Here is the input.
Amino acid sequence: MIPHSYIEELVARNDITDVVQSYVQLRHRGRTYTGLCPFHNEKTPSFVVYPETQSFYCFGCGAGGDVITFMKRIANLEYVEAVKALASRAGMPLPEEDDTAGKKRSRIISINKDAARFYFERLNSDEGREARGYWRRRGLSDSTIKRFGLGYAPDSFRETRDHMRKLGYSDDELIEAGLLKRHEKGHTYDVFRNRVMVPIFDLRGNVIAFGGRNMGDEKPKYLNSPETMAYKKSRTLFALNVAKRSTSRRYILCEGYMDVISMHQAGFTTAVAGCGTALTAEQVKILSDYADEVVLCYDSDEAGQKATARAISLFASSPVKVSILNIPDAKDPDEFIKKYGRDRFEMLLNGSSNAIEYELAKARKKYDISTPDGRLGYIRDAVGILAGPLSVTEREVYAGRLAEETDVTKQAILAQVSGAVRARNRRNEKERERRLLEEGMGGRIQISPTKGGQKALGVAFAEQQLIGAVIKRPEFFSLAAQSLKEENFFTDDMRSVFSLIRRRYEHGEPFDLAALSGELPPETISLLGRILAQNYELAIGEQDVRMYIERIIGSVPESTRAAEKSPDELAAYLQTLKEKKS
Here is the structure.
């Protein structure tokens, strides 16, 4: 374990407001700072930093915690790696720590690096003749093959394993890296066999995974590395390590590795792709850091159309401009570039339609607008599209185009759009009110209906309030420790937090959020961040702590009827405290 004195100094030297401001533009509001959450896309700030408790919480996605938790999430690091990053930032010596997780991650990266070299060497050996022929048939030059580190996994169940063993790696390590599997009879065998290999790099240039493609018609066509400590699909974009070097802020988002590689060879060096999974909000957020415009360049088949629709939805709350590329006479960009060349493809890119035009064109294809019913159907769908998050100018322009297409006046179309916008706003407001009612102070407490209903919710809420109080004011824990034991706690998460706090209390160690974050799961730390956020403006005293304790243990004297309050009643009580204070 890292000494608690080191963590205390680390947190003291890395004020959470300063650290967060390195990644998020914050606005000072009273005793807090607010900004757009770096962990999900949003247009209205719901991310709050609390300097007094050195914590943060996002009321949109539920991410919360301390400065170490923030560094873990923002840089995709393990706990000790995050501590080291903050130590480097503050000019502190690195902690003396048996960094098991960090060492495992580094070991996996080392394994992948050596495996990539092995696959590249095999590609250029006699046994790689067929694989070299495959890459040639795909139109790739030697320089492109080298630039992307493309390779070949031998047609053997043990050649990769035996080579990696000679380099000092154990079978267990190779299994953890995703290169080996263990048979039910106990022996191990290579995962990638007789496949051309595409290494996947992180932004630092480390090989973190592989994609292997067969060279014939066998299934599966693609075989990808599993997620490991070094590789998270939802946070990885293929070729971003190369694309980020470009000065262009227009990125091309493709469906597969080969599309990206072909585009880079043709000179379109901002092409990237997801890694074996549907586009995620995290990938959109990462792209938003590099791109002002993203051109969606998916296949024209049904799967590609669905991927395009999903991407448009994910980018809707992003500041990035989205364009959609329509590829005629070819199933994908790779085929188009081979048939028509680079210049024709660049013309396509420059003439790509924006998301509104794409949606309107898709809607028009559904109807025969030469008929009254067809025109009505098209107008109905188009009005729904124009009622989306558009500017007044955009609505004016596209309403004019729609009027020309349908012989309906622009004023009539704009009137329908205005009505649809008002209806949408009413729906959004009702949904917002519903979420607020559900959220409340106890809205995210998950209790099975079979475990006591509202009474159980009240106890669970009291547990959260008590834990929040003792983290905020450690002197209250002696009062809680006199009356409570772990078995008194109804919820597993608060029981585990109470147990950890008791142990640290008995050893004279701190139990603020930063001290706890290294020993609790991320979801529990986020929950503690939420509890501290909800109680930030409240001055909770000893009487309140006693009320929570009595509610938890169930011995409620007549004089303390407040302990029988429901979560909503307790929330109202806390609001009263807040109003009295102000």
